[in-house]
Amino acid sequence: MKISGRSSVNIRVENGRNGQYLQTIVVQPKSAQILFGETVTLECTVFNQFGNVAWCKDGHCTMGRERPLYFLPRYEIVGDKSAGINSLKILNVSLDDDGIYQCQIGRTVEALEALSDFANLTVLVPPNKVDLNYVSPAVISDKEFQMNCIAYNSRPSTTFLWKFDSAPVVNVTITKSEEAMQTNSKLLKTISTITIKANINQHGKEITCEVTHPALNIPITASSTIAVDYQPVVKLILSPSKLKENEIYWFECMAESRPAITQLVWKVGDSILDRMSPTEDGKYPLKLIATREMHDKNLTCIALNSAGVSQATIALTVYYSPKFRSVPQPYTLINIGDALSLTCDVDANPHAGILWFKDGTIVGGGKSYQIPDVTEHDFGLYACVASLGQFTKIFATTKVLAPGPPRLFDMPSVLASLRSMAVLKCHVEKDTEPTDAYWMFNNVTLSSNMKYDTVSLRDTSDNRYETSLMIRHINKQDLGQYECYVTNQYGTSFKRVRLQKRDSYIFIQTGIYGAIVMLLSVLFFLLYLYCKHATKSDRKRATIKRMRKVQTWLKSKPSMWIHSAPHEKIPLTVYDEKSGVTRTTLGPAVDIVECYVSLTKNLRNTASKPLPIATMPFCYEDDIEQIYETADEDQRGWQIDV
Q1: Strand runs (DSSP E) across 334-410, as ranges?
Q2: Which of 105-114, 373-382, 585-594 has the highest mean pLDDT?
Q3: CATH code, domain carrying 51
Q4: Quick one: angle between helices 506-555 and 592-602, nearest 10?
Q5: How many domains are contained in the chain?
Q6: Coil, strand or helix: which one is 77?
Q7: DSSP class of residue 373?
């Protein structure tokens, strides 16, 4: 390979005794790139040459000055020396030839030395291997990852082009570095590093590193399919929009990810409803019972894998029945002339309608009811009623009263038998807490003793206070009116209750009990008759069934014989085809089927099961065997021979 260059002449006249002539290099050696194993020629042409030529490599001028160069068999100085042509020819170029060359013309008496430009000879060695590998341990969506493309054993370094599905990669960061394959080696390892921000769309795409080199006619490529690990993609594919309290609804969440999710969690607000393991189809159903506490909260489906956490959320709207958050106290005490304010705070979705009633009559609506100046006519029972669509109405009541002495409920008379025990109860409205309570009879205050037992005031669950009096061993002197007295901070009130003798109803009770016993007896007798009739019917059906079986068998055996000796046989039965009945030949004639049924009936208490037809003794009538009426007594051992 010959490298051509431009010729230049630069003549300069030197004054003095030495160097009167100027020897000038007019054709300079040029830098060149040569393939390994080829031949290259570095030109050096001198004008007005007086001195000898010497070629130097990497600053060492040890190649010799004579032609040929005996100690360097692959090196040769070629050209017409007389014409000043002193080119260097290198055969079978190897890596040892790679370096910086210079042509030098030595000094003489007539001329000074001449030095050529430096020429860089690069031996081209293509890479023999290209690797593509990941720097990052995993490719995760929305995070950066790096890949290295490495070209080995090249000279000089290679160049790289990155592609995504055959299209050049854009908007990425690419760096390049090189290093010697070994210490003092001229072969290089070149590394191109690409930094990419991963996304789901890159999953499954092919990334290619294309390596080019001056010694290569066709680039070397290395490819890899990108596997992007991405956070779960979560979707709610079944989400009812309108929920009703205490009803069951199904939600369904779908989660797709790489790698597969490790767990899926359903939450309402901050409360975890369920934890689920991965499923094959990626669907995760949730059975939800809607409650009022879920209203306006977020139902969240959260999926986790090694790449991260994702979720899908829906706001729950729950329609639920009215429920009181706060209501007035059962009793509201207020003085005439004061302002009255009653409030009912109702929780419902949508908002419930609220009406206020006084003694059954509508007096207002809304959350609050107010009276700026209370009069005597404003006292009474107030009710707050909340309603919403088809939901059940709810209500709360308060009794508006003026402060005063205890208000006692009327007490009905108490009936008691003589020599028995009775309990008298006295109930007080719970508007003001009582301070004392006692009982009186015939103007005498009663206290607990062998005769009486008084129970102090206690709070009952029906917004009342209760005190009671127990009377033991009642006699005629204990009958009469008793008085219950109750005291509070505003005064004392009392109510009367009468203790009366209970009339005797012993005869009426006896009559009632007798009628009940009689009715039960009749029922049991009817049940007995029914069971007896059912048993007879069952027996009749069983008998008919057996008769049919016997008759069917006898039809297949139209005649039978009896015998007492091997050669003595007497006809036993004859089958009448016209009537379909098999009868005995011995008098009197007997229907064999009826005989068998009779025999079975007589023997049912002694035999564990009906006798087989083939071994059946003949029928009985008046305890005498029919078959032996015409036979001798010594023939009683005869048997039926089928």
Answers
A1: 340-343, 345-349, 353-358, 361-365, 368-371, 380-387, 394-401
A2: 373-382
A3: 2.60.40.10
A4: 140
A5: 6
A6: strand
A7: S
